[in-house]
Specification:
4 helices, alpha+beta
Amino acid sequence: MLFGKEHVKRYQETDGAEGHDWNGTVTLLLTTVGRKSGIERTTPLIYQKDGDHYIVIASKGGAEEHPLWYLNLEADPEVKVQVLGDRFTARARTATAEERPRLWKKMVAVWPDYDEYTKKTDREIPVVVLERV
């Protein structure tokens, strides 16, 4: 099973032929710019489509702090996304209070562990909407 840097490398090299289908679900690659370093960082994330948008969850496995990629996109919401061979720029935003319940349910349907992660943390785990620009 691919993980971390190897997952990113194989996904990029194969246009997602390796790495898109992962552990019974699907992943995209999200590239953010480090808010302190200014260096691009790419993270494989489970996703679902919602209309023309892509949805990801900033869970960090239920850790008390947000994942670094989420902090980066808060500082600079212009991100790069790769879904299979489709590479594009997107604007990232946190789902509104009205959107969140529906989108959360959609994501839990493909990765039930998200509900378990909520039991490990007091923070509200962000649902992120990626809108192609």
